[in-house]
Fold Response regulator.
Amino acid sequence: MSKIHYDRMKILVIEDEDFTRNLICRLLREVGVRFIGECANGKDGLMELVRARPHLVFCDVHMEPMNGLQFLKGVRNIKVKGVDHTAIVFLTADSSTDTVIFAKEHGVAGYLIKPVSLKQMRDRIDFVVTNTPLLAMELMEL
């Protein structure tokens, strides 16, 4: 299997609960990610996404003033080259059918149900990178 360079990854975590956001960031550091941005809501997340251009976003669904579904829709409609196709993984306790369908229709790269383990986090990152050609070219040693 090809090696993924986690240390080259830029990941944005959007989560309104401080404890959960800190836990996700800790798991990402344990995976080997060094560049981690943090936001507490989708509105701030959109601004940070345009500024930092992360490879991947882990985003909660239920937040204010902009929730994860609104964030996802905003990303897909943004007119900034490269940003509109950013890989987004939902991190949530909400597995309702409507939420899952909306997420899939708007090109979410994955869905992790909280609480998340280190293995689940690494497996989802690996899946997204290996199945996204631009990320694979940039982050994998072939």
Observations:
- The first strand starts at residue 3 and ends at 4.
